[in-house]
Specification:
Helices cover about 50% and strands about 20% of the residues. The protein contains 11 helices and 14 strands. The strands form 3 sheets. It has a 6-stranded parallel beta sheet with strand order 4-3-5-6-7-13, sandwiched between helices. Strand 1 and strand 2 form a beta hairpin. The longest helix is centred in the first third of the chain and has 28 residues.
Length: about 325
């Protein structure tokens, strides 16, 4: 009995230390709720938290920028969980600490885990509304989802594929992140395949699951496509921002520019520059401004009325060589 007792005590102490560290981190990160401005104390009506596992990415930084402005205009302090801390703590850890801190609302990109759903349920039980953004978890008790219509996105990818078909059979490889466990991704892929096959039989579509848990794993998986596959695809379709960036770099590294085309995801500066140069054929993008604004508005509306729309659809657009210059000019304004 004594031998079993000590590991239990050690485990309990470790958990206390871990939660204590998380609490100190969160308390330090939320000190900005009362800000000194021109000698006066700035106070906010509510405090929201935004949680994303890749919060340092250009995509989430742009979403946060828009959301933070909307929050400021609504007398709300919006906290973006520092992505560096994600190396030590998981998304579920920050959900726990947000609930314990009694924040007024949570905006998050779910990862599809059962534990995540349980914590969203716990937040709901504690009267903390949760909005899912960019990706959804419809099985959870989130109050609303802000993101793209999966059917429309699948059709946009399908149309882009059809515009890049070769005269002979075209081999298309769809790269899917292994962490994309939401039903939206399945709908995108299904709609993409249906739309293409309705228009032509001159295409072979294959799916390839990519491990996106870390940069090294992702680069190795992309490398496998170029080194170990018996035949290179004519067209790579990327359903993820990081996959798009790595696929583009691999085409350059393996001297396949002009041999393999890419249909990307989102409109980072690198992707836009590559479309302008002709290295990437096109990309399917969306309004990060709308995702940020609608997410904050959903929480505000819920606090005001006690209910909110189940879904906020954001604008999609396909960017190619024909409109990339105008897109780049608009982003510079």
């Amino acid at each position: 009995m004594k031998k079993a007792f000590f590991p239990v005590i050690a485990g309990a102490l470790f958990s206390i230390i871990l939660l204590g560290g998380m609490w100190l981190f969160f308390q330090k990160s939320t000190e900005g709720i009362d800000l000194q401005e021109a000698g006066t104390q700035k106070k906010y009506e509510r405090h929201y938290v935004m949680i994303a596992e890749d919060a340092a990415s250009t995509l989430w930084q742009e979403i946060y920028k828009s959301a933070a402005q909307e929050a400021e205009d609504s007398d709300v302090y919006l906290e973006l969980v520092d992505s560096d801390a994600m190396a030590e703590y998981t998304l579920e850890d920050f959900l726990r600490i947000s609930i314990a801190s009694k924040v007024d609302g949570i905006i998050m990109q779910p990862n599809g885990s059962e534990q995540g759903r349980k914590l969203i349920h716990e937040a709901a039980q504690n009267k903390i509304p949760v909005v899912t953004a960019l990706e959804d978890d419809s099985e959870s008790e989130r109050i609303s989802f802000v993101g793209m219509n999966s059917y429309q996105m699948g059709s946009a990818y399908g149309e882009a594929i059809l515009k890049n078909l070769e005269e002979e059979d075209t081999n298309v490889l769809v790269l899917i992140g292994s962490d994309k466990r939401d039903t939206g991704t399945s709908i995108i892929v299904s709609q993409l395949m249906n739309d293409v096959r309705e228009k032509t039989e001159n295409v072979n579509i294959s799916l390839y699951n990519i491990n996106t848990d870390g940069n090294f794993e992702l680069e190795e998986a992309i490398r496998d496509v170029f080194v170990n596959q018996k035949e290179l695809p004519d067209l790579l379709v990327c359903l993820d921002e990081m996959i798009t960036e790595c696929a583009y770099q691999a085409i350059v590294d393996y001297n396949q520019v002009g041999n393999v085309d890419i249909i990307g995801y989102y409109e980072s500066d690198n992707v836009l520059d590559s479309i302008k140069k002709g290295t990437i054929a096109s990309t399917i993008s969306f309004s990060t401004d709308e995702i940020g604004r609608y997410s904050v508005n959903a929480l505000n509306e819920y606090h005001l009325l006690g209910h909110v729309s189940n879904y906020f659809n954001v604008t999609l657009r396909t960017i190619n060589v024909g409109n990339v210059v105008s897109v780049m000019m608009n982003k510079e304004k």
